[in-house]
Amino acid sequence: MHLDGRVVGQALASRLRPVLLEHGFHRFHGRNAWRRSDFTVGLISFPSMNAYVAAGVGCTTYSFSGAAGVYYPALDHGAPVEWPRDYQLTFRGVLGKTIRQPYFHPSGISDGSDRADVWHVLEDGSNLEVVVEDAVETVLAQAVPFIDRLDDPRQAMQSLLHEEGRNPGFGSLGLLSAGRGSEQHTQDVDRLRALLG
Fold first, then answer.
1. Range of the domain at 19
2. What is the number of structural domains in the chain?
3. Is 130 within 8 Å of 18 (Cβ atoms)?
């Protein structure tokens, strides 16, 4: 089998799209899926690696990571966007795979290591089905509950006030956030308070 990023993207889409449709996602483009709610736009994304990143991480260019989160247009610090990219999310999580893959070789180091935040697709594609199934399970266990929770502005406020950023673990979501006390964090809290009335 000839394997490249398109083949991996098609495998992800064929398994993920029906699952995401069941959870209200209605817009799909490439490896991105969005759903709109009263206050937010939810996004689940599975970006691939470019050659530079893949070499540093020690994986193939068709390996991928996963991100999920919500975008609050009312909290945007610029002009709101209709369909945000992952870097525009108000709350962003990094998915943590559940399978072990101790064959990463970051920057050419010969000892195999593993990463919780990257699904390593082997050169020959022999593990593609297993990797895609794990990504689907991770979406259901981590991404959808994260988005569901933060769709609620009250829960989003609790997250802003009490949650710290953390790295993903195997089977656990990592959280990327503006540091508490930063100007952006303070503005987000103020804008969300205004939204809550």
1. 5-78+89-196
2. 1
3. no
